[in-house]
Amino acid sequence: MPVRSELTPALRERICELHSAVHWGYKRIHNRYPWISLSTIRYTIKKEHERRAGVTKPRSGRPKKLDATDK
Q1: Quick one: which of 3, 29, 46, 47 has the most CB atoms within 10 Å?
Q2: Angle at which helices 38-47 and 9-20 pack, to 10 degrees?
Q3: To which H or E segment does residue 35 belong?
Q4: Domain boundaries, the chain
């Protein structure tokens, strides 16, 4: 599967706003943003309380070592 880019902070904020303030469900949000999967919407809403001011958390673990072809 191809690696997809993460959601922008503004889009994450909008999804969580629609869920909490407007009380939209996952499917209604998905109908509004059909290119975002239901599982991504569900995961974004579930993990919103762990983000600080909408900033993406740093990745855990050591970065991958680059070889000659990656440089």
Answers
A1: 29
A2: 80
A3: none
A4: 9-49
